[in-house]
Amino acid sequence: MATYKFVAKDLMAENVICVNPDTPINKLIKLLINNRINGVPVIDKKGMLAGVVSKTDIIEYDGKAQRKQKAKDSFYDDTNGKLKEAFDKISKTKNFGKTLVKDIMTPHVITANTDDTIDRLAKIMFDKKVHRVIILEKKRVVGIVSAMDILNAVSTMGYGSNAFVTEEAILDLQERLEEAEKSIKSLRDVLDKIHGEK
C-alpha cells in the first residue's frame, strides 16, 4: 500500500491576507478586526515578503517608530484572547495619525516552502518555538501553516494503518508542541517581569 507524506501545500491556509509597508495603521487595525486575525505578512511592491505585523506590534508601538523587543515573534504565536482587551482598547483610543505598517512591522520572518514535509514544518516550529509558519513559493507568500493545521492532519491518519507516522511519532509531536508552548509562556513571563520593573 502506497503511503503519502503531507507537505505544506496540503496543509496551508491559502488566500493569505497581506498588507504593504505603506498601509496606514488605522487601515491595518480595521483589517485585523474585520478578518478576526492576529497579524499579516507584509509584502513589497514586487510581491516579495518584507516582514510581518501583528496586534502586539500595534499595542507596543510607542509613537517613536520603535518596538519593544518582545514583539519580535508575536506574529508567529497564538495570541488571540490574550491580547484582545488591550488591542480593543488601543484600537478605539489611540491615534496613530500617519503611522504606516513599515514603522511598526518586524522584518523577522519564519518561512517554509510549499514542498516542505509535515515533519519539516513541525521541526521549524519546534526549533523556533513558534505556532505558525509563512509558506513561500518562488519567494512569494502563498499560505500559512499553523501548529493546529499539523495536529489536524496528524489526527486524520489512522494510527493502525500504514500511514507514514506512528502513534509514538504523533505523541512525540504533540509533546514537542506543548513544550514549545511552555517555553514561549515562560519567556513571556520573564519579559513581562522585565518590562514591569522599568
Summarize the structure.
With 198 residues, the chain is of the alpha+beta class. Helix content is 43%, strand content 14%. It has 8 helices and 5 strands, in the order ααββαααβαββαα.
Regions with little confidence, pLDDT below 50 for 5+ residues: 65-72, 159-163
Kindly state the percentage of residues in helix.
Answer: 40-55%
Taken in chain order, the helices and strands follow as HHEEHHHEHEEHH
- Summed up, the helix count is 8
Rg from alpha-carbon coordinates: 18 Å
> What portion of the residues fall into strands of 2 or more residues?
5-15%
Q: Name the shape in a single word.
A: globular
The appropriate CATH architecture is: Roll
The count of domains is 1
First CA to last CA: what distance?
A: 61 Å
- How are the strands of the largest sheet arranged? 3-4-5
- CATH C-level category: Alpha Beta
Mean model confidence by pLDDT: 79
In the CATH hierarchy, what is the superfamily?
CBS-domain
Category by helix and strand content: alpha+beta
